[in-house]
């Protein structure tokens, strides 16, 4: 059986705002066309009567320009009782490896996101040191920032 990872979907209150956040902070790029989806097939697939989805896919840095993607969508009618917790059941966060965790965290805050917990350094096998911090995008989705370096001896 062959398989490959294709995308991660984020349902946003304002898909354009979230899309711009990921473009500005991480350099993600929109992949045409923008989506405007509706029809009997979508109603059947989602189980939502008269479902209507708008949004777009974003390429993610470090990979082919078409896959995998972040799929940023908004529905006309959305459930808003979805508190995002780092220890909540289900998908917890998106992770990005970056050169400078502090600089990217600063950019996240400048773009309207926030920080969750403290920035930490941890020693790993093979003389590696990792820097980690959890952040939040403009709608509260959790993002892990990480960088790796060889321990200086």
From TrEMBL:
Protein name: Glyoxalase-like domain protein
PROSITE patterns membership: VOC (PS51819)
Domain VOC per the UniProt entry, residue ranges: 4-148
Species for this entry: Clostridium oryzae
